[in-house]
Records
---
Amino acid sequence: MEKQGVRLQGVGVGQGLALGPVIRMPDPLPEPADVPPSLDAEAEKARASAALATTAALIRHRGERAGGTAKDVLDSQAAMVEDPTLSDDVAARIDAGKSAERAVFEGFATFRDLLVGMGGYLAERATDLDDISQRVRATLSGLPMPGVPESERPFVLFAHDLAPADTALLDLDKVIALVTAEGGPTSHTAILAREKSIVAIVGASGAMDVADDSVVIVDAAAGIVTVSPTPEEIAAVQSELESRAGEVPIPLAPGALADGTPIPLLANLGSAEGAREAIEHGAEGVGLFRTEFLFLDATTAPTVAEQQEHYTKLLSAFPGRKVVVRMLDAGADKPLSFMNVAPEENPALGLRGLRALRANEQILRDQLTALANADAASEADLWVMAPMVSTVEETRYFTRLAREAGLKTAGVMVEVPSSALLADRILADADFASIGTNDLTQYTLAADRLLGSVAAFQDPWHPAVLRLVGEVGRAGAALGKPVGICGEAAADPLLAVILVGLGATSLSMSPSALVGVRAELRRFTLAQAHEFAQLALSANSANEARAAVLEASSALQHTNPTEKVE
Ligand code: PEP
Ligand code: MG
């Protein structure tokens, strides 16, 4: 694998480019063999207690560096490692003839089962114990720590995949790019990478065969990782990186087509901290605020006061602007331990989104209350919406609760084919629809958005997906209700034009994608967008649709190059 110029193909996230050495995320440690130890019991006990103390200190140190809520979580993990009941249990197992590794493994597993048996909050801590057990055993055996590696120098992180919490906590001064073997273009790893402007390629099979410290070029626009590049390739990338750093920014303007039709361009955000960058990129508001990203690490439901603080901060950044906040979308790829309790065989088809909120109605009501309070304290135009709505009845349920809480604009996300097919009836009850093309594509093509092996199916250019978008667009136009797009499809400039041609009235995306989409919209009129949409709809596949529209749009560009909006 380390031969010069080996290339791995994956799915690029955005247009970034990076060059640097690889550090791989270590694989989880296997279960230690249950064989007699080579040292005597006293020596094994000394090893175990030293490893427990070192691990606790390392966890506390990570907490100090991370700060905020991460520090609280890590401090409580360190306290678990220092629990004397646990060290006594480990010592007793060593006295009974186990090695330190095996005693730690069994001791933690027993505590884990105990917590699971107690249910509720304590059961939610079970995965923490698994993680700590791995860390203590890695310390004992001198192996790399599980989880995101730490390094003093910048590196390209290679991983099978990352949990959303790992991606959210990445140290961006050190991780200059991310390459995963798993994950599709709309996996949350990809979405968070885009939101944080991390150069990333997902679904690059073979990534885990690349050795640590190999130098790689990560070219997200091409979706290619070049392992051990030639000196010429390195020089070319370095000069490209220098010229990108010196680029003059394009002036910002509201989103509009060439004929002046306004198409507001909004930002997808996962925290209020992203607001400044969104405004700098010319976002006219927020089209999707993913509230669950605020609480991925939380083990108990967030309080009204805690949420209100986050939402007030967000709304205050957009006075007079539209801000669409999505209720907690828990489940499948974004499990929240305080909501998704029962294990499910097919979590994407399980109790997720609005279904999970409904099963925890007080959490939903608290979130609506926090939003209503934040709304009253700010000047933004707050809209709220429910994720994963699949029936008319669910639409009525959510809009009723939102209105009871005093929220004036309540809509639903269309992410399930059933909602798109019944959009006329759903929009009769909802104030607006926002199409989540990531899940809509996953469910239409029956392809898990997290699975690299089916990433090719996760293509929103597919005419089946576009036909469903068209259903919602038609219903919105007939009823005079707004239809936004907030899935990653809106970030693809040419596809954005098609989505407008299918009836989308606003587009929301990661801030870094706004510039490209703004420029593309200005190249075409609404009539041309309709024309392209028809072309895409009549194709047999995503690739055919893309090729047909690309050809038609390039032909138009040559015959009609001067049309533009002032
Ligand atoms: C979507 O499914 O398109 C969407 C915007 O929601 P998420 O990606 O957070 O599931
Ligand atoms: Mg979704």
---
Amino acid sequence: MSLIRRCIVEKETTANPIWLMRQAGRYLPEFRKIRSQNENFVDLCLNTNLVPEITLQPLKRFNIDAAIIFSDILMIPYGLGQKVNFTKGLGPELGIINQEIISNINKIDFEEKLKPVYDSINKVSNNPILKNKDLIGFVGAPWTLLVYMINRYSPKKNINKVFFKDKKLIDNIIEILVKYIKLHIYNQVKSGASIIQIFDSWAGLLTDKDLEKYIYLPTKEITDYTKTLKIPVICFPRNIKNYKKFVDIVNPDAINIDYNVEPEQILNDIDIPIQGGIHPKMLLTDKITLKKEVLKFKRIFENHPYIFNLGHGVLPETDPDMVEYLIKFVKDN
Ligand code: 1CP
């Protein structure tokens, strides 16, 4: 059994599994080279030769316990017929979502558009390098996808409040998203993904009164559905203030914490396996500082099933040597 499964399913506390969010891409020179020759990011995510290659790049360098399929959460809006572009320096840029797009959405077009993603998963899952390791498939949670679909740009820049006033449109899109996120999960699992992670990167934008409707209910439905496929599901409701309440209601198999969470506190609050939490900027410091941080996490989670990971993705300016050191140190100590 893979180390991650031993941790999540068997609740083993000595397995010390590690993988990193955004481990493929951005900071790796071998990824940058491919990216520089492939200007259209969506096309790159649909390239069934390059996606398996990029997905396995970090496994060729490091002794990590999982590959995460090279794709993007915005492939779902793309599959639903919305325009999706990634512009250098600007980030994602989506087309307008309108009634025409919504009424044209159908399962056959969605699956046809995303078939290359599933073909790539199938190809990667058969690679011997993944023996006893996991292949992580993923989706964006309905709320985070809704934010990109309605706002059309990263909410990092600003939020278009006018659109968010149209409650009927929002309810309609959330309902569509839940249905198609489930389908995307089903197809990834059928193609060979052995774990699903649900990224809710913008959970922190909501206030308490809206959490039930936009986060707890839809994410629980998707989490329950993933469990019926008999594979573990990990949730990452980034910056949600109350992880305990999220876990009590949604009940995923494991929870990824962000770097604002106090690890000691979460250990008191939560019984299920925990993943992540180390600040990505720790990889920009030096080996002594990084080592101290890893030892701190090891000590805190000594008697709790814990998967080493970060509190958000690997930063583009990270030196791959530091990633190598982190992984080696987790494994050797
Ligand atoms: O221009 C480029 O070179 C593209 C950069 C890039 C990469 C490498 C984007 C655009 N997406 C990805 C890959 C990706 N995205 C992966 C697979 C790689 C891996 O993990 O190793 C995954 C899991 C994601 C998930 C993702 N995409 C999230 C959730 C995690 C998170 O970071 O919070 C989100 C919010 C996105 C949207 C997105 N895609 C790309 C960018 C620059 C963004 C973020 C935009 C923003 O800041 O709002």
